Each structure stands twice: as structure tokens, then as C-alpha cells.
Amino acid sequence: MITFKKLSVRITLVISFFALLVAGVGSAVSYTDTLRQERNKAYARIMELAKTVEKSAQIAAYLDNQEIADDVIGGLMNNEVVAGVLLKSQSGWRSTNDHKPLNDALGEAPLALDLDSPFSPGEKVGVLQIFPKHDVIERNAKLIARNQALLLSSYTLIVALIIMLAIQQIFVRTIKTVASTLNRIDPSGTKRLHCPLSHRKDEIGHLIADINFLLDISHFRIHSERELREQLEKLEQRFRLLFENASVGICVLNEHGDVILHNPVCREVLRLDPAPEGPARVEQFFKDARQINRIVFDTLTAGELTNGEFELATTDDLDGPRWAQCLFSKARVNETSEFQGSAFVQMIVIDITERKIEELQTRFKAERDPLTKLFNRNGLETRLNLMRDLALQEACGFAIFLMDLDNFKPINDNYGHEAGDTVLIAVAERLLACFRANDILVRLGGDEFLAALICKPAINQADLSRIAQKTIRLLLQDIPLNRGRNANIGVSIGICASGPEHAHLSIAQLIDHADKAMYQVKLAGKNDFCISVPSPMRRDQLTS
Q1: 445 strand-pairing partners
Q2: What pTM value is reported for the model?
Q3: Which terminus of the chain, N or C, has fewer Cβ atoms within 10 Å?
Q4: Mind spelling out the 3-state secondary structure of 272-329?
């Protein structure tokens, strides 16, 4: 099937078109010109014939001699292009080829040759008229013109055919060979195009040289890219080895806080879904999601490192609290990277649950009474100061309960220290039932306890009295001991109630007020409470 996309077909069509155009136009011009020339040649030959018999015709016209005239006319009539001849003299004598007068039926005007006297040049003695056969002349002229046009067209077409064959042989076939060979050449190999000797210095030779030059460049680039790819693969393997086997969790977050990349340790610490339906949000893995979102935002905007310990979100009711130490840093993106214009956060995650539990246990042991699990004296003043500062900031009241058990020493003396420990544990449990979870409960030592609480919106002695009465009521209840025995104790409570107007007093002074109030209870008969409200700050103290 012939396709017009082929160069050989298009060249053939173009040459054929112009060859036919040239042949057609040239043949038409040649036909017209040859026809005109052949007509003129025919008439010129007739006049030449007339010239050959001019002497005889002059004598015949001078002598009015019919016999000579017949010879002249007969000689002319032997030519196929002569239709008739008329010889006239000045005397009126005439002679024709058939001895009859000629008329216009013979055709157009005849060719005339004036006859001079053979003895007196310049003296006209007659005229020789020749009537051409115009149809024969026209037919012969057309035949010659047609043959000439056909010959010219044949020459043109033959030249066009030779040109097409030369182009096919010299150009198209060479191009096909080059294209076919180039199609089989592997750019990564060393094989190159061969330039024929006949094309070493022409355009095809230059084309082949340029193609070989491009193949050399491609060969160099392919090998360079292959070496670079191998180096990148090695680097990627090393990075993957470091990334996958790192002892810490590593993950990358996008600007929306989505986890887009993580290693196995990070997946284990954060408990990521190995096959999530979509990107996981980093805040869902932490207990304080708002804090994590703020840190990610600050890291992206300020670009500063943020390091901290964060409690992780629990995914199971049976799962205990977990902690992780996280380092947030803004990732630097290379200007030539495909991620140019994007912002990322690198997060390094270390599971510190065991360490945190040990710290909490150590702190618990340091801050808590081993028997009652209440706070001990260690850090008491610091905790009380923090609670009091919070109360002052909110303009609320602050109260300290100082409690001393009554009739506790006989239990130790009569039933032993084990029974005393049982009583202290029971007292701690009942105190926890009397006070709120955010209140401070401390075992000061022996049978002394302290409680601190914030009173909102201000000190209300009625509320403090209800708490004290409930405490006394619960502690007066029997405490079961071993062997079916019960312990009966009481409690003396001294309460120091303070407000913002007592900001000048220290914690030690407030405890001292509570201690004095408790002492008043002891003097009054025990199992009761007393509320002490310190004097407010004097005006001169306010202005000093």
C-alpha cells in the first residue's frame, strides 16, 4: 500500500507533477511555434520553386508561348503542395494548369512572382501566380508540430525519470539504509553508522557524521546516568538500611500534619496502622493533640527545634500510659528537588515509657508516704506555694487543715505497730473520701496529717466546717483490726482560712496559725475543729 508519508513517494509525486507541467506547457508552446514555422517553410519552398522556373516563365510571358508555359506549369504542379498555377502576360495572355480560368475556388490568394523581361531587366512582362494546397500544408505542419511536441514531452519525461531514479539511488535509498541501520543501533553500545565513500564529503556524509556524534553523546550520557543511578541505588540502600534499622523512630510530616513517611520503630512507638486507608494525622497519636498541632505549626513558621516529652494516646483500655520524647525540626528541601515549595517537619520519636515509669515511681517514692500513699513532707512547701499562688491569681480563698489523731498512741502500745499501720491506712482512705481529688493531702509523720484546698470564689467558713465535721465523723467510726478487734480514734483539726488579703503571710505562717487552732481544740477536749482567720495586711504594708 502506497503511503504519502514516505519521502520517496512525495519526491516522486513532486517531480512527476512538475515534469508533467513542464512537458505540457513546453509541448503546447512547441506545437504552436512548430506549426507556424512549418507553414512559413512550405510557402517559402513554393516561392523557391517559382524562382527555379522564373527564367522560363519570363520567356513564356514575353513571347506568349504556350508550350514553354506548359513546361513551367507542369514542373510546378509536380509538387504536392501546389494546387494550381496561373501565368499571365502584360498583353492579357494567360495560361493555367488545366487551360481553364482559375477562380477563387482554389482557395486563398495565390503566391505571386512578378516576371521581368529577359532582355530588359526592370521591365515587367507578366506575373506567375501559384495557388498552394493549404489543407496539405496545414496537415503536414500539424504532423510535424505534433511529432515535435511528443518528442519534447518524451525528452522531459525521460529526464524527469532519470532524475527520480538518481534521487532514489543517491538520496532516498541511502537515507533508508541510514534509517534502517540507525533503528538497529543500541545507543548504549559502540556501533555507529557507516558512511559510503561516495557520500564522505556531501550533505549525507555530514548527516551521518552528526548522527554518530549524537550517538557518542547519548552513549556517554547513558553510561553516566547508569553510573549515577547505581550510586543513587547504593546511597538509597544505605539510607534505607539506616532508616529501617534506626534505634529511634523517624517520621516526616507535611504542612498539614500528615505522617507521609515513617520507619518501623516509629510505627511501633506510635502504633501506626501498617495499611492505613489514608494519611494519619500526627496529633491523633498524642494525648494533648492541641499541643502537638501548635508545635508543628511553630516549627514550620519559626523553623526552630522543639524537644519535649509527651504522653501518647492510649489505644486500649488495658494499655497503660505511654510517653515519648520527640524532637521536631523543619526539613530543608533542596531547590532542585521535586518537593521544592513544600514544607516538611522531621520528627524523631524515642519511647521513654519505661524511663518515665521509673521516674514516676522514683518521684512517687520520694514524694509519697510508703504506708498511706499520701504526700510526705518532701516538697510540701513547694506544692503549697504553687496552690496558694494559683488561689491568689484567681482571687480565691486558700485553707490549710492541720489534723492530729486522738487516742492513736494506745493502739500502738496495746495492739502493736501493725495495728497502728492499719489505722493509718484507714485514716488516709477516709481522708481521701472527705477531700477533692485536686486537694493536697499530706502525712506529716506519725499521726499528723495536713490538707490544703482552694476555696472558690472566696473563703466560706460554713463549707470548711462541713468538711471538718465530715472528717471527724468518718474518723470516729470504728476501724477493723485483726482477730475481730476494732480501733477507736478521734481527730483534732486546726484550720487556717486565708484570702488575697493575707498574701503577706508565708506558708509557714499559715501552717503555724492552723497549728495554734489545733492546739486550742486539744485544750478544749479533742475530736473537734477550730477555724483561724489571720489578720489582713495593714494599710501601711499595702503601701510600702
Answers
A1: 448
A2: 0.48
A3: N
A4: CCCCCCCCEEHHHHECCHHHHHHHHHHHHHHCCCEEEEEEECCCCCCCCCEEEEEEEE
